[in-house]
Design brief:
Layout (H helix, E strand, L loop, with lengths): L10 E7 L5 E7 L7 E6 L4 E8 L2
Antiparallel strand pairs: 1-2, 1-4, 3-4
């Protein structure tokens, strides 16, 4: 009897600039865990700002 393994598939999430609201980065990761909040470069503002995780 074959068993199906229930793996969590990787989903695409977007990192959105908290200051300008621009969708600057798309990454793939497994669902679950806490939301990401990273300091990344925002080309619209030309400086490093905090980016938070958001699903489109």
């Amino acid at each position: 009897m074959a068993q199906k393994s229930k793996k969590k598939k990787a989903e695409t999430i977007f990192l959105v600039c908290e200051e300008s609201g621009a969708y600057n980065y798309a990454i793939r990761r497994k669902p679950g865990g806490e939301k990401l909040r990273l300091k990344k470069y925002c080309p619209r503002l030309r400086k490093h700002t905090f980016h938070s995780e958001k699903k489109k």
